[in-house]
Amino acid sequence: MNEDEAMKRFLESQYTDVYPPQRLKVAIMQTIEVIKTLKELCLLYTKASLSTFGT
Amino acid sequence: MTKPSPPRDDATDEELILFFLRTRSNRIFELIYDRYSFSVYRKCLLLTENEHDAQDLAQDIWIKVYFFLDRFKFEARFSTWLKRIVVNRCINHLKAKQHFKFSNDVEKDEHVAAPKINNHLDVTKLLSQLSRETRALLILKFVEGYAYEEISEMTGLGISAIKMRINRAKKELLKYTSPVNSSRSPRREQR
Fold first, then answer.
1. Tell me, what's the ipTM?
2. How many CB contacts within 8 angstroms connect chain A with chain B?
3. How far is Cα B4 from Cα B166, in angstroms, rounded to an integer?
4. How far apart are CA B52 and CA B180, in angstroms?
């Protein structure tokens, strides 16, 4: 095994059993939904503004 | 227009992405997430060495992936595209923190002392003796497999400084990772 391979194995031996918590996935999906809702609201607001000003 | 049939769980990444781009289905996104969540989180942990930061970064990265997946051009593998996003995000995070500053100053590089735990090799303890930037350089080179030129582009460091710092840290670490040498006593580097 050459030195680079030894280094790779050595560094990769860290955090091999640390998994992301399940609540992270939940938080990500919830944040995505919030951003989607905000984007839709922005779009609706823009459309409403444009029609109010007759453009 | 016929509704596209959902891909099976064993579909390729590209099949999942194509389906996701057509439907914006959260279920499909979750399948992609499940495949790569460990790898993304672990890269964040390796580069930041902080669980809280790693979770924040992973969340940020996955939200970006959700909204910008249409920028994936199918020219490389999805895993390669994702890896680059993770690494760039982590490097930017580390650069933004004042305690972390990539520097071309190779003279200030550190040495590694053997862990004082009955010759048992504790990787984390050994690595904790290196500076954050040196650890990040080692991870980028040996775990992520980036070329020196790519690391230079990411970090803003000169190629010769990167090579020197990596080689110096590698020499120090390998003294204690080899089974023959693992019990040798630490030696202070003479400057």
1. 0.83
2. 72
3. 50
4. 37
